[in-house]
Amino acid sequence: MGASLGKPIILTVLIYLFLKLIVPNIPGSAPLPSNLIFLYLMLTISGIVIFATLSGESKDAFWGPIQRFLTGETVGGLQMLRYAVLILFPLLVGWETYTSTTPSDQPPAENRTIHPAPPGEYTGLSNPVAKTPDNIMQGKGFYAAFCSPCHGGQFDGKGPAARGFNPPPANFSDPTTIAMLQESYLFWRIKKGGVGLPIEGMPWKSAMPRWEVELPDEWIWKIIMGEYDGAHQSPRTWE
Amino acid sequence: MKPANEMSQWVIRGSAVVGAAIILSGATPSLAQESVSVRAAMITGTLPADDPNAAEWNSAPLAQFPMSPQVHWQNRIQEVTVKDLKIRALHDGTQIAILLEYADPTENPDDAAALEFMVGDKKAHFAHGQPMAQVEGGPVNIWFWKNKENKAVDMSAKGFGTLKAQGHQDVKAKGVYVNGTWKVVFSRSLVNEHVDEDVQVKPGEFINIAFAVWDGRKDAAGDLVEKGSQKAVSSWWYFRADPPPDYSGYLYAAMAIALAVGFQFVLIRKLKKGKSA
To answer: For every residue of A118-168, which 3-state class applies, written as one string?
Structure first.
């Protein structure tokens, strides 16, 4: 009799553990949002209920223990648990209602796009400066003078001027920043700065200077070389 | 007895798992981090708008923000005195008072601090509302205080070189220097009629705030080290004046509990009847 309830419970638990612990570890996957896990569990439970109520016999085997528990017949030592469930269920409903109707005092969630699409004229440009040790060295010198106060001497985004800025300056040694981008993208970002971002990049928050007013293009291309070399990253290419 | 025991085991295990699932799937851990917003608590007594040391400030939640040397536009500065700001705010439904607190080893006549707000619905760049290439920006409202005059200047800007004092001065400020710490309190009415120039603080709504501080010390040649754009700055953070207390959430929760209890009662009665029938 217990087994008829046991199997569904085990199945639900296994599916929960699969969604919570195994799915996030599948390569290319990510942790599932809690509401999605809830939805999957609800689908699982609905499926179990439909399956368990297909025949009159399976229906009795499935609902019988639940009915007896709820009505308090033959529950034996479970009487306390029954009372606990009967008290906790309304409280849980009340809590859920309270939290969902109370206005949040959290600031609005921000979906800032970190690497938004560049304007057309800044796609596919190749670095016109020859990749020579001299030019790389010069680029690193410009980087030290103009970029390192925020992006850091170690290219890690932890320069002495970084701490007050939100969003924080990019960490170039992180494989999800310049290693994912083409040189022409960096050229756009350095030249036009934070105020050059489209609306999804929230330009009003960015402290990145608009370097086109201070640096010639050639210096910017050299800085790009210096950044990739110093951060031990390579620009993304289409090949 | 055996079936009952077996069943009881399953039910215990099952309910534990379901409970854990609800908790794990519904709970999002809130991690401790530095502040992202200033919360102005609502008080019923007198607002301590003239007194940075008033006891009322202890009831205001503390927010803390890191500051950077201003390196975003010329003229830059690479190192500044003030590296952190503590902010508290209170309102009484009519007036708002904001308290800045920061360490500064010396008191100088040119010590100064400022608050900056976006004005209206348009986003404004934190650097004086400078133009943005792809977004139409709005103006900023700046509340500036300097030790020399020990009063506020209510200012507007929309881009570099446009900063000017407003024709109507609506902001008050007072600074007190004790033991290496500046405490400066700014105050104004929450809302006013100058909606195009002044920030409007509507309780319950999040608005944007940024900070600037100048240490008025001089170098060996007698020149100010921090002046104009050479200052400590922050980019935008959030600010919200607490709305008046709202108890409707408790009412809705009580109604939901009553409904759930009723549902249980009806369900169990129905099940019992079904059994006996």
So the answer is: CCHHHCCCCCCCCCCHHHHHHHHHHHHHHHHHHHCCCCCCCCCCCCCCCCC
